[in-house]
Amino acid sequence: MKVGLYFGTFNPVHVGHVILANHMLHYTDMDEIWMVVTPHNPHKKKSTLLENYHRLEMVYKATEDFEHIHPTDIEFKLKQPNYTIDTLVHISEKFPNYDFGIIMGEDNLKSFHKWKNYEVILEHYQVFVYPRIGSSQKENDLVNHPKVKVVEAPIIEISSTFIRNAIKNGKSVKHLLPCKVWEYIDLMNFYK
């Protein structure tokens, strides 16, 4: 089975994440997408994150209607901060019969050469890249790497930061979130 790993803090998960996960599932050769809820991205401030459990719960709520998209807490028990290579090694050992690839935005591909052991990732795993505004494939040598596959996907400019700030400022973001995620955020009084 071919599994695409879609990493993120998902703080919160929004409709853009769900659209991209579905697009990758239907427009690549992946059989499943696992949304890997990251406890602490080394490039983000930890203080802005909701507790791991709450972000995982929101991803469950966002994906429960999609048979081949699954949240996973596989990084929760790994050493922090989390590095993608460590997670890939762990998950490949745990599921030796699965063929894993990673999903990332074009902006991440631009800085991919700064990731821990990025060469090892490219040697062993396929990287599926979706477009982002402000990123240009022409500027990136890695775009021509045999393990990198650029996927034509809708460009979605919704950010979790925008959503958190909007909620904090009393603005409605209900239309940017899966219904059950919005209900959970509202019930728990998050981001206010």
CATH class: Alpha Beta
The proportion of strand residues reads 15-25%
Whole-number radius of gyration? 16 Å
- The count of helical stretches stands at 7
Number of domains: 1
Order of helices and strands: EHEHEHEHHEEHH
Shape: globular
Instruction: Name the assembly state.
Output: single chain
Q: From the coordinates shown, what is the CATH architecture?
A: 3-Layer(aba) Sandwich
User: Helicity, in percent?
Assistant: 25-40%
CATH fold-level name: Rossmann fold
Output mean pLDDT: 92
Uncertain segments: none
**Terminal-residue CA separation:** 41 Å
Structural class by helix and strand composition: alpha/beta
Tell me the strand order in the biggest sheet.
Answer: 3-2-1-4-5-6
Model description:
The protein has 192 residues and is of the alpha/beta class. The protein has a single domain, classed as Rossmann fold (3-Layer(aba) Sandwich), CATH 3.40.50.620. It is 35% helix and 17% strand. The chain has seven helices and six strands. The chain has helices at residues 15-27, 52-63, 84-94, 106-110, 118-124, 160-168, 179-188; strands spanning 2-8, 32-37, 69-72, 99-105, 126-130, 148-150. The protein has a six-stranded parallel β-sheet with strand order 3-2-1-4-5-6, sandwiched between helices. α2 runs antiparallel to α7 (179-188). The longest helix has 13 residues, at 15-27. The model has no long low-confidence stretch (mean pLDDT 92).
